[in-house]
Amino acid sequence: MINRFMIFSGTANPALAYLIARELDSQLGNCVLKRYPDGEVSVQIRESVRHKEVFLVQPTSPPANDHLIELLALADACRRAGAARIVAVVPFFGYGRSDKRHGRREPIMARMVAEFLEVAGVDHVVTVDPHIPQIEGFFHVPMDSLTAVPTLCGALQGRLPARTVIVAPDAGRVAMANRYAQCLDAPVVVLHKRRIDGTQTEVTHMAGEVSGRPCLIVDDMISTGGTVAESIRALLAAGAQPEFILAATHGQLVANARDKLSHPAVREVLVTDSVDVHEENWPELRTVSIAPLLASALERLAADGPRGELHSKCLRRTAAQAREEI
Ligand code: R5P
What we know:
By secondary structure, this protein is an alpha/beta fold. The chain has helices at 14-23, 64-80, 109-120, 149-156, 174-184, 226-237, 257-261, 291-302, 307-318; strands spanning 5-9, 31-35, 41-45, 53-57, 85-90, 124-128, 143-146, 165-168, 188-195, 201-207, 215-222, 244-251, 266-272, 285-288. The protein contains nine helices and 14 strands. The chain is globular, with a radius of gyration of 20 Å. Bound molecules: ribose-5-phosphate (R5P).
């Protein structure tokens, strides 16, 4: 079965692609990605993909536009070379936050990305903790949304201080916080967030009791760190114990995120390797790999296995208590 598929990586996260291939007892396909002097992308697949199932591993992480174009180019190259099925493995789905218009004369970028991928020849999409699950509705082709919450909970088991509360930093993260709570057997607190601009947010309300309690703040992504920094401020103002663990599936960590998260009360920043994190000498930052999760999913896909078994297998691997509805 392993020989039936091939795995190629864009330049966004070759380390993750390598780990996925290793989990599948396979290796990365030979392709060359370069930039022309004017910045345009050059892609060359250097082995036959005819009649093969092809997995293209490429998070559309920053710089999102470059990584998206690379993924489109890889898909087009495989389609023109006669691949049987092209699966875009997009551990982090960039532009996921542009899922609706917030005002007049704005685009819906997530919908455009879905259309681009389909036009380029993608037959199936696999992603992890997209900003909203409804993104699936932008696609005509099947999309599997996996969740890294059991993986992250597995990494947190036994490390949480007593009486920790799980904090959803905004209403959109309540379902995710509930999954953590189920996994870690802790209560949930919900913050209401108002976004001021791309880097600043304001907590306007809080539902739940945090007085004297350590907090695990969970999110789908930490981008500039603004959301988490404001959450910490509001939680401390509400009397939370100055002991925070931050967990997010996608650690984009752009702009001056590190400065914002370098609060003396932050004990740990836990993210997955969905995005290639380039931070060094940051003792509080810990990364857990989602390669086993993705490899299980791709193994099932290649075998045309049922989705239910695919997801339950992932969960069994990572946290037996987790209950996931995908
Ligand atoms: C927004 O709704 C998301 O779930 C994240 O909370 C947000 O994107 C994080 O971005 P930042 O770290 O820049 O505040």
